[in-house]
Design goal:
- The complex is a heterodimer.
- Chain A is α+β, with helices and mostly antiparallel strands.
- Chain A has four domains: about 1-165, no CATH class; about 195-415, no CATH class; about 415-510 and about 620-625, no CATH class; about 515-615.
- Helix content of chain A is about 65%, strand content about 10%.
- In chain A, strands 2, 3, 4, 5, 6 and 7 form a six-stranded antiparallel β-sheet that branches. In chain A, strands 1-10-9-8 form a four-stranded antiparallel β-sheet.
- Chain A is flat and about 80 Å long.
- Chain B is of the alpha/beta class.
- In chain B, about 40% of the residues lie in helices and about 20% in strands.
- Chain B is built from five helices and seven strands.
- Chain B has helices spanning about 1-25, 75-90, 100-110, 125-130, 160-175, and strands at about 45, 50-55, 65-70, 95-100, 120, 140, 150-155.
- In chain B, a hairpin with a 5-residue loop joins strand 6 and strand 7.
- The longest helix of chain B has 22 residues, at about 1-25.
- The chains are: A alpha+beta, B alpha/beta.
- Chains A and B meet through helix 11, helix 13, helix 14 and helix 15 of A and helix 1, helix 2 and helix 3 of B.
């Protein structure tokens, strides 16, 4: 009964989405206020209906209703409750429902926080989001229904993929989807602006906070995923250029370009067409990524063969959404003015160069991700282009981007003088070059890649320090006043850029100086790595709720002083009979000590791999700093001012924005 | 106007590829190398860089040549099948570790088992170019005269092994 209610709620949601996607847009074109007025109630009704469907599915999981096919394939009676709930988005159908759910959360937020927008603009934005929702709801109701019944019901479920049975995986997909789907707001703003022909700076100003918010979620989501791979896959790696990772990384690259390009459009009125195109691309890549991952086309080409309608639907949907918006772009963009002029040496130029580098990086990732897919689809077999391709292509693109990142914020808008810039940045340059040469030698060895990485990290540190110093220097005011004087969005930028430097430093040091050993260990054996002694104290058999585990115990000492104990596990999940590694990690800001259990060997010995990973945590700290920078920018005074003015109902918010 | 159409054109090209890809049944596309002598090389061995491997040394027997790498995801899929094959002893299996580091490769073999009699190290991928390697993994069946009889692009599956590679190997061995 409950699953039928969920199913019915989805059908109603589709009907509401049809209204939401049509009347407000037509109303905006005709100036019909009543039709435009349908946008907000429709968005809210749709949110409630999809929430009901979502809760119904969660209920089916919680009560172990194995007469629902999707529940039976992604859950099991022994699965703990928190994972039964997370299993709602553990498979194809459920993650589509999560997608639709999050889309409606964003839409409903737009409906609440858009009082300062002109009616026509708001109606168009909510309408466009309704159109996207139609696609997802139709897809679910036609070929991917999470509420489909299984008759007769299964005795027990086939269990959730053990890879997903992890606290990190409970939060990672919703975070990532908040990011992906959040770009739909920027997309809807861009389409609404194209439809209305009002591609002025106001459009960029309104869409900026939404874009930043989505970017913050996406950054955090990718970070969580990378961190999860680090401790769950047991290879000590944190990024694999895996198709699934790339699918989230491409929208991130374009989204990052979009954030910067929006700033130029808002402040200087330039790059208007380019910004619109980026907004379309960021969301298109999110869509493509969702489908590449969720259709299973990347993990197995046969996923489509089982239900070719899915593949066709996806393709048709992509054509309608992306193709349609690109047609609209080609039609309307020529009318967009050129915007403010700028010199070759100016902040605009630096931002443009960074934008192009980020976009090219996204395209090369797209190419590397799709190339195996094309070959696979053409029947040439499944292959992997893997890290050799991505490392070769990516580093040369990112190095200049990071270098420009140091210069851009210091350069002036419109026109800047190279000699002046060079003079201001010579200290930062000197310090970073010196660090790049000396630090590796102190740490042990120097390679060009280590040198380059350190140079770029310290270049950003140095230029940021210069930027802060110049900004805070001046009148004899208390330090706090001077710190508070730049806007929060300025501080947000500085923190996010410093996050990139921290990230780069982490990547460089861990790639350059990590060490590892693979050893055969018996109880009492001692292995040595990076000055630490690792004593193997045997393996215990442990029974989990739905797995059995062999848990090793490794005591770490340095010069006879005990440091910590690692407990790496090798689990076998009983239902799917799938082995999983749980690495034992002792994290710290200086280094991680990491151990994972390999295979049991003869005579009670185990193969054990031990890693020493200096500064690896900096990678994720850097990501968190970027996300925090985004949050700082969102808390900027002008966004709060807007709310206050809105509350008192006096005046136009656009006027207070700086 | 024209430059604004460019994104649309690029997108439609991608869609065209995807559409063709969806329709086409997976089928074999013969490699231009099939029927030609296996390109010569002389590469250091993974386990012992002092020693080298060359197809010349393998003349007179039917052998499988598997291109793999520790960074390759699809290789993990075919690996258990290769390990089982090497245990059965039906046909000698040689490997080529493609664009990889010695340490990673050895670790990966330690972890998943080593099905190869020996693996050559093609660190810069030069030999891979001679063999027309699209990507990893790929597997070649090479006959007694050193001629490539079959090329499998992508992982070796149970079916491919049972229906194509093993019958072919049996036929070639009796020739």
């Amino acid at each position: 009964m409950i699953p039928e209610i969920g199913h019915f709620a989805l059908i109603l949601a589709l009907l509401v989405a049809l209204i939401q996607g049509s009347f407000p847009i037509i109303g905006a074109a005709r100036g019909n206020a009543v039709w435009m007025g349908l946008a907000r109630p429709a968005a809210r009704a749709q949110f409630l209906l999809i929430a009901v469907a979502f809760l119904c599915l969660a209920y089916a999981f919680a009560t172990m209703d194995y007469s629902v096919t999707y529940v039976a394939s992604n859950s099991n009676s022994k699965l703990p409750l928190q994972y039964r709930i997370a299993a709602v988005w553990g498979g194809h159908e459920g993650s589509l429902l999560l997608w639709a759910m999050i889309l409606s959360i964003w839409t409903v937020s737009v409906s609440f926080f858009s009082k300062h927008l002109p009616d026509a603009m708001r109606a168009r934005i909510i309408g466009v989001m309704g159109l996207i929702s139609i696609g997802f709801l139709l897809f679910m109701l036609t070929v991917s229904n999470p509420f489909e019944r299984l008759i007769p019901a299964a005795m027990d479920g086939r269990d959730l993929n053990p890879l997903l049975q992890d606290p990190g995986m409970v939060f990672h997909p919703p975070m990532l989807y908040m990011g992906y789907v959040g770009f739909s707001v920027a997309f809807a703003f861009a389409i609404a602006a194209l439809l209305g022909g009002e591609l002025d700076a106001a459009w960029a100003r309104w869409s900026r906070p939404w874009t930043t918010m989505a970017w913050v979620f996406l950054t955090t989501g990718i970070m969580a995923g990378s961190n999860w791979a680090y401790y769950e896959l047991g290879w000590g790696g944190w990024w694999f250029w895996d198709a699934v990772e790339n699918a989230s990384f491409m929208p991130w690259l374009v989204g990052t370009a979009l954030i910067h390009s929006l700033a130029v459009t808002e402040k200087r009125g330039s790059f208007k067409a380019w910004t619109v195109l980026l907004a379309i691309c960021a969301f298109s890549l999110s869509l493509l990524g969702t489908f590449l991952v969720r259709s299973g086309v990347l993990t197995s080409v046969h996923a489509f063969a089982t239900d070719p309608r899915r593949g066709l639907f996806i393709l048709a949907f992509l054509v309608v959404v992306i193709g349609g918006s690109l047609v609209l772009f080609a039609w309307r963009a020529p009318a967009i003015g050129r915007g403010g002029k700028f010199d070759v040496v100016s902040r605009e130029s630096f931002l443009l160069a960074n934008n192009v580098l980020l976009a090219v990086a996204a395209i090369s990732v797209l190419f590397g991700t799709l190339y195996p897919l094309f070959l696979d689809a053409l029947g040439l077999g499944k292959i992997s282009v893997g890290p050799p391709y991505f490392d070769t292509v990516f580093a040369p693109l990112m190095a200049p981007a990071l270098f420009l990142m140091g210069v851009g914020p210091i350069a002036r808008w419109k026109q800047s003088a190279l000699p002046e810039l060079a003079k201001r940045l010579r200290w930062a340059f000197g310090v970073s070059v010196a660090t790049a040469i000396i630090l590796p030698l102190l740490l042990g060895h120097w390679t060009p890649m280590i040198g380059l990485g350190l140079f770029l990290a310290f270049w950003i540190f140095g230029t940021s320090a210069n930027l802060i110093y110049q900004r805070l220097r001046g009148p004899e005011l208390p330090l706090m006043t001077r710190i508070m004087s730049p806007s929060r969005s300025w501080w947000g930028m500085v923190v996010a850029h410093l996050g990139i430097a921290v990230f780069t430093l982490g990547v460089t040091v861990v790639k350059g100086f990590e060490s590892e050993i693979a050893v055969r260990m018996q109880t009492g054996d001692v292995a040595h790595l990076a000055g630490f002694d690792f004593t193997f104290e045997g393996v215990q058999e442990i029974e989990g709720p739905n797995y059995s585990s062999s848990r090793g115990q490794i005591r770490i000492t340095k010069n006879g002083v005990e440091r910590t104990v690692l407990m790496p596990e090798k689990r076998v999940y009983t239902v799917q009979n799938m082995p999983m590694t749980e690495a034992g990690i002792s994290p710290s800001i200086i280094h991680d000590l990491y151990a994972s259990l390999g295979e049991p060997l003869d005579g009670g010995a185990w193969s054990v791999r031990i890693y020493h990973k200096p500064m690896v945590e900096w990678i994720w700290v850097g990501c968190l700093m970027m996300a925090f920078g985004g949050l700082l920018a969102l808390s900027d005074r002008r966004y709060r001012m807007k709310n206050r003015i809105k509350a008192t109902g006096s005046g136009n918010a656009a006027e207070v924005s700086v | 106007m024209k430059r604004f159409l460019l994104p649309l054109v690029i997108f439609l090209t991608v869609v065209g590829f995807l559409a063709v890809g969806l329709k086409l049944d997976p089928r074999e596309v013969p490699s231009p190398l099939v029927g030609k002598p296996a390109p010569m090389f002389n590469l250091p061995r993974l386990d012992n860089p002092e020693k080298t491997i060359s197809p010349k040394d393998l003349l007179g027997q039917v052998w499988l040549f598997n291109v793999w790498a520790s960074w390759c995801g699809a290789c993990r899929e075919e690996h258990p099948i290769l390990v089982a094959l090497s245990k059965s002893g039906t046909v000698p299996l040689y490997g080529m570790d493609y664009k990889d580091t010695r340490q990673d490769a050895q670790q990966w073999l330690e972890q998943g088992g080593n099905p190869y009699i020996a693996s050559a190290m093609d660190t810069d991928g030069r030999v891979g170019i001679d063999y027309g390697v699209y990507g990893v993994p790929e597997t070649y069946v090479i006959d007694k005269a050193g001629v490539i009889a079959y090329k499998q692009i992508g992982p070796v599956t149970e079916e491919v092994l049972r229906d194509k590679i093993l019958p072919l190997v049996k036929r070639l061995q009796t020739q």
